[in-house]
Amino acid sequence: MACTTAITADIINDCTKRPVKGLKAKAWAFNKGVATLTMTDNLISNLVKAGAATSYTFEGFKDFMNAGYEAVVSDNLPTGYKHKFMLDAFLATAAEKKNIDNADNFFVVVERNGSQTEGCFVAYGVNNGLWKTAQSKTANENNGVTKLEFQTRAGEEEQYSEYVVWKTDYATTLSMLVTTES
What we know:
The chain has helices at residues 94-101, 170-179, and strands at 23-31, 35-40, 43-49, 56-59, 65-72, 80-89, 106-112, 121-124, 131-136, 146-151, 163-165. Strands 2-3-11-8-7-1-4 form a seven-stranded mixed sheet. The mean pLDDT is 93. The protein has two helices and eleven strands, in the order ββββββαβββββα. A hairpin with a 2-residue loop joins strand 2 (35-40) and strand 3. It is globular and about 50 Å long. The protein is mainly β.
């Protein structure tokens, strides 16, 4: 694989593509190996669940989750990207607590607030997974909410900062994701 380290197109900040803060209140998590992806570079144009496997949704309220990346710059390697996903969870039952205690090695698709165009659905941890890096809860802080953080592991950074999930248009992409839920 050749390492391309050159700019290959103009970078234009256009008011029609102005970013909007935040994520929609639903995300789709896929355990590693349970989805087949059609990918070209950082574009996922199709996502199909494997057999009886399903995606799992994270649903909640405004700002209950966050996602992003950090570049990992090296003198002797191509730049990689540490993907991050953070979640607030209202865990009450033993099953809910066990489920999140065991959560590791998955990738997640989130929907950004703003326009419903290519780039509104992005995925993190696609190739190397997201792994728990922090989990905490204290009764007198944050209303007793469990705070979770997942990241790619050191030395297993992703090739791209984000993976765009887009199949034809917004409705088709959303339908593709919802189909993985059952």
